[in-house]
Design brief:
274 residues, alpha/beta, five-stranded parallel beta sheet, 7 strands
Length: 274
């Protein structure tokens, strides 16, 4: 019996600790914290010692693999899998390749929120934390200048941590199809699960059933689920700004729908509806 247990656990071992089998990779203000917390409640999921995640594949990569491994416990029943999450993994230009090199068989979970609402919530979040002084509209206007050359510098110098790219990419973070295409350069589709945030919070048990199946876990129903770090609603966005964002994201949402079937497309306002 002990030999059979050791044989089952051997593929999960990573130099003494459990090898991460899943990563929640984004998006920021999209529900990734809730998904990470809910996955950790499954009895077959081993906890990450750093809480939600280590940020190893984005801003802490310089700490080294041994530091990352230390975030995960040794295998023990009934655990089948362990993992972590960072909403920056999907957006950071170097993270997908780093993940593929360290964990080529890992399962990736992306939680996507309507990009208009996500951008609004993101700005509110950074302003509340003292990381944004501009109004939402001014921040949108400033984004091209703020982000100019930052992605290229991050790629050229892996030690460079871009403050602007990390905190002020309100528009760019919503380019979901582009980010998923980048992930697809390193991972097959069957290792990527894309969830719609709105469906997740409306029907959490139904969406978590997809997660359990994706991760190879027993189906369980978690009681008392509550959202973590609930973001601001878009209801208070000025109508002109909401329309600006809707127009901006239209081609991105079309491509996302074509790629994944997730639909954030918005009907045109006014005009002929016949």
């Amino acid at each position: 019996m002990a030999g059979n247990l050791a044989a089952r656990l051997r593929p999960l071992v990573w130099r003494g600790g459990m090898r991460p089998g899943y990563l929640v990779i984004g998006t920021k203000r999209g529900g990734s914290t809730s998904v990470s917390e809910w996955i950790a409640e499954h009895p077959q999921v081993a906890p990450c010692r750093t809480g939600k995640g280590s940020h190893y594949f984005d801003v802490n990569h310089h700490r080294g693999e041994a530091w990352f491994r230390s975030a995960f416990p040794p295998p023990a029943p009934p655990w089948r899998i362990t993992g972590e999450g960072s909403p920056y993994y999907m957006f950071h230009p170097l993270a997908p390749q780093r993940i593929a090199e360290a964990l080529p068989e890992v399962k990736l979970i992306a939680v996507l929120r309507d990009p208009v609402e996500r951008a609004w919530s993101h700005h509110k979040y950074e302003a509340a934390r003292g990381k944004e002084e501009l109004s939402f509209e001014d921040a949108l206007d400033a984004e091209p200048t703020r982000l100019a050359g930052e992605r290229e510098r991050m790629i050229a110098d892996p030690s460079y941590d871009s403050y602007e790219y990390r905190y002020h990419a309100y528009l760019a973070r919503g380019h979901y199809a582009e980010q998923l295409a980048h992930l697809g350069e390193f991972f097959p589709q069957d290792q990527i699960l894309v969830l719609k945030s709105e469906d997740l919070f409306a029907h959490p048990s139904e969406q978590l059933a997809r997660v359990w199946d994706f991760l190879g876990l027993d189906q369980v129903v978690l009681d008392g689920l509550r959202a973590h770090k609930v973001g601001a609603s878009s209801s208070s966005i000025p109508e002109a700004v909401a329309q600006r964002l809707s127009d901006y994201y239209a081609p991105h949402n079309d491509e996302l729908f074509r790629r994944t079937g997730i639909d954030f497309r918005r009907p045109p306002r006014g005009g002929d509806t016949g």
